[in-house]
Amino acid sequence: MKKLILLFQKYKEVIMYLIFGVLTTLVNIITYYFCTRLFDLNEYGSNVVAWIISVLFAFVTNKLFVFEDKDKNWRAILKQSLSFFAFRLVSLGIDMGSMYGMISILKWNDLIAKVIANIIVIILNYVFSKIFVFTKKERR
């Protein structure tokens, strides 16, 4: 048990990112599903709505639980949130491009394409957040 605790402490950030990454992905996919199936939006409009909701969820969970950023200064939070959303716009472009390629070109099922695109985006978003958004003050 002690080994598990030590492993968790050593890899806590990555483990928490994976947990909240999965939850963010679920928020994204469920929102996408509701938008396409219940509200009859097209795949691309639904993807944008799902992106907005999941990015808001991800910012809060990444700040509080993954990177444990305790900075409550409104300027710091504004800077982080703008940076977070800017990098998420980059990943949205990758998400939309891969969705287009898988749905419109390869003719894959849209939900399968959504899951694959999310895997790519999760990895990129961790790198962006770790390096550019929630940096430790010592590294700034």
How does this model look, in words?
With 140 residues, the chain is mainly alpha-helical. It has one domain (11-134). It has helices at residues 2-10, 12-38, 43-66, 74-105, 110-133.
Summary, kept brief:
The chain contains five helices and no strands. The chain is mainly α and 140 residues long. Helix 2 (12-38) packs antiparallel against helix 3 (43-66) and helix 2 runs antiparallel to helix 5.
Topology:
Layout: H1 2-10, H2 12-38, H3 43-66, H4 74-105, H5 110-133
Structural class: mainly alpha
Question: What is the distance, rounded to the nearest whole angstrom, between the alpha carbons of the first and last residues?
Answer: 36 Å
Radius of gyration: 16 Å
- How many strand elements? 0
Helix content: over 70%
Average pLDDT metric: 90
